[in-house]
Amino acid sequence: MRARVPLFRDLSSVVLNNEEYRKQLEITLKRTDIPNSIDMDAVIRTTHSVSHLLLGMNWCLMTASEGSCFVTSDNPVVVADPNNQEMVFTGFNSPNVQVTFPLSPVVCLLGGWEDRLPLIWNVDTLTVNRINSMTLRNSQRYIFSSSREVETLF
User: Could you name the domain of life of the organism this protein comes from (predicted)?
Assistant: First the structure.
């Protein structure tokens, strides 16, 4: 079933049908590194597809064990297949995909297709370090941590 909440549907209609909003969007895109050849229609279709995949996943809040903390970066959302670390890209539809997003030093959002994810999962230091390692590899320029221990991950 394809359905949108009324606020999103109405806002989308306003943005897509209003010439002033379109001009502002074009100005914003010119200020970014996004190539002009990208078709906005394709971006909207892709966003729509990905959002439905993300909404269909099972989600869990991982909490770091005492003495460990999650790091974050300028590109904090990691999409990876833990069974196949050599893959350059893993899609959201891959059966083993895991999506991680550190929310704070002690909480990280985990999404995947596994049925047995608990709502809240207290993870050990080894798991925190594995998530941190993936977050650091995924970073583009900056990393952020509440602890200097992050230096040991390099």
Answer: Bacteria
